[in-house]
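Help wanted!
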Amino acid sequence: MKRLVILGASGSIGMQTIDVVLQHPADFCIRALGVGRNIACLEEILKKIDVSVVSVQKEEDAAMLAEKYPDIRFYHGEAGLLTLAASMDYDVLVNALVGFAGFMPTLKAIESGHDVALANKETLVCGGALIEKALDRYGRRLYPIDSEHSAIFQALQGNDISSVRRLIITASGGSFRNKTREELKDVTVEQALAHPNWSMGAKITIDSADMMNKGFEVIEAHWLFRMPYEKIDVLMHPESVIHSMVEYCDHSVMAQMGVPDMRLPIQYALTAPKRCELQEETLDLAAIGSLHFSRPDTERFPLLALAYEAGKKGGNLCAVMNAANEAANLAFRQGRIPFLMIEDIVIGAVRECTWDPMDSVDALLEADAWGTEYALTKIEEVQ
Ligand code: MG
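Answered by r_m:
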């Protein structure tokens, strides 16, 4: 029986993790849940599973819930998430938080001797070097939940990582894959949120529309598989059937395929290298008929090129890039800035910040604060 702590339980990945757990009651149990402000969703979850510890964002919610559920212990705020990650007795932390907020819980889980099933890619984008150091020091592992990285992880099974020629991360291209630069100027939030293949949270759907997400995934792959950037390629593949591939030194290419449903990568992160039954659709290649591939257009989507650049230069650049993106992504969703201004802000932040080796958590927090401040200043200017 694997004992889990799930952070971000009311989000898209969190809910699908609970679904996977409920499909295998003999294999998994949930020790603790972290949710944000979606208390209605939390209460729905509590009807389905028994859990003794919960953390929510707001103190008043924690107090209200403590009265209503006397058998459950409630924590709140960032400290609550860290308590769950560090102090509980469990086997795997499922980190399904969104954004930079996911970094510290991942680090605390590793430092307290836990493995992490990671859906929060920002953890590695911002602080990959710090996480790598902690993994080595505490002898812990990360299991990818991101579908592309799960595909690579699966395609690596039984092979020697030193014989890898390159990783090929596939990209659907998001909501605007067929739009010209000119057309991207006045796209709306509603259009950006309509992803053609995947149903995901709002932040990542916008990150997919400008391909920041794919850039983040390149950085994530660099840290997860300890692969140099020169050996990581992105390939456009609009059908999202091949979730990613690994090419070996003999030019054999291993691809992992499936329907676009996150429950498979979630489950594999929790059972690998073992496989378990999963109730989901069968991939019907005959019905799909044909698959398409093309090279990414980094002129149209410059954030992908920026991510490679920031990744290679390292230090604080990726943390600054992530922070600026987090603020700009939100401002776009709130209707405060046009779509293309997201990239202006993110590129500007990386160009204008002073490079720093960022060898501590304090330096990471500083880089994050700088990137956020830069973005907020730019957003203010257009108001
Ligand atoms: Mg992905």
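OP: Thanks! One thing I noticed: The first helix runs from residue 12 to 23.
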